[in-house]
Amino acid sequence: MRVKRLTTGAAMAVGALAAASLAFAPSALAVTPDTATITADCGAFGGGAATLTATQDGTSATLTLTSSAITAPIALSENSITSTLTMANSATGATDTFTGTQNPAMAAGDPVTVGPLSGTVASGDSLDAYGGSLQMTVFGITITCTATGPQSPGPFVFD
User: Fold this and answer.
1) Alpha carbon distance 104, 80 (integer Å)
2) Given Cys at both, which of 24, 70, 83, 107 links 114, Cβ 3.0 to 4.6 Å?
3) Which segment of the chain is annotated as a signal peptide (predicted)?
4) Domains of the chain and CATH, by start
C-alpha cells in the first residue's frame, strides 16, 4: 500500500513539473508581418507586384518571393535559379542577405517563385526590400530586381 502511494505521489509531482515547464516555456519566435508586397523593377526582364513571405525559427529566417507580374523567360527546372535577396535593415543600418537555389519548375511565361531563401536575423531586425535587391542567376545570366518603394504593410520585424 505504501509503494502505491509513493508511486502515485511521484506521478503527480512529475505531472506538476511538466505543467509548470509548459507555463514558463518561452513563446515561439515570430516575424511580423509574415507577408508583404512590393513593386519590383527587373529592368529588361519586366517587373510588377511581388509578394514576400517570411518565417523565423530562432536566429534562422527564410524569405520566399512570388510574382505573377514577373515571369520565367524560358522553361526552368526545379532548383535551377541561384538567388540572393538583400534586405535593408533599419535596426542596424546595414543589409541582411538571404541566399538559396530553391525554386519550383516553371514553364516559359509562368509566374516566378524563388525560395525559401535562408538567412540569419537578430531580435529587433527590421528588414525591407526597398534599399536592397534580388539577384537571380539563370544559365549564367544575372537578373537584378529592385523594389521601387517600401514594402507594404511595412518591414519584417523579427523577435
Assistant:
1) 9
2) 83
3) 1-30
4) 31-158 (2.60.40)
Query: Would you state the cell numbers that stand for residue 80, as one nine-digit string?
Result: 535551377
Considering Cα of 90, then 154, then 102, then 73, what sign does the dihedral take? negative
Residue 71 pLDDT: 86
Gap between the Cα atoms of 28 and 159, Å rounded: 9
Distance of alpha carbon 8 from alpha carbon 34, whole angstroms: 46
58, three cell numbers: 530562432
How much is the pTM?
0.80
Q: DSSP characters for 75-131? A: -B-TT--EEEEEEEETTTSSEEEEEE-----B-TTPEEEEEEEEEE--TT-EEEEEE
Give dist(CA 67, CA 48) in Å, integer: 8
